[in-house]
Write a structure and sequence with these properties.
2 strands; 39% helix; alpha+beta
Length: 88
C-alpha cells in the first residue's frame, strides 16, 4: 500500500537506530497529513530495521532481509511504529 525506502546509518547500535526510527514516526505523524482511507486518520509510517556490524566481506542481503521482516512485523502490529532487529 505504500512506498519503501532505505535509510543507512553510520555505525549505529540498536538503541541509536530505535531512536532515529521513533523520531521518523513522530515527525511524519506530526505532519498531520490527512489520509481518508486510514483508520488512524492521517498518514503514518511503519519502519522495519536491522543493525549489525558486518565484516568486510559479509554480504548485505541478510541485513536487508531482516529489515524487511521487521517492516512486515511493524505493519502487522498495527502500523505507525518501528520494529528493529539486531543481527549477531
Amino acid at each position: 500500500g505504500g512506498e519503501e525506502f532505505v535509510v543507512v546509518l553510520p555505525a549505529t547500535q540498536l538503541v541509536g537506530a530505535e531512536l532515529v526510527a521513533d523520531k521518523l514516526c513522530t515527525a511524519v505523524r506530526n505532519l498531520a497529513i490527512e489520509h481518508r482511507g486510514s483508520h488512524l486518520g492521517c498518514v503514518t509510517v511503519s519502519i522495519g530495521g536491522a543493525v549489525t556490524i558486518p565484516s568486510r566481506d559479509e554480504p548485505y542481503a541478510p541485513l536487508l532481509e531482516a529489515a524487511d521482516v521487521a517492516l512486515y512485523d511493524a505493519k502487522h502490529a498495527g502500523k505507525d511504529r518501528a520494529v528493529l532487529r539486531e543481527l549477531a
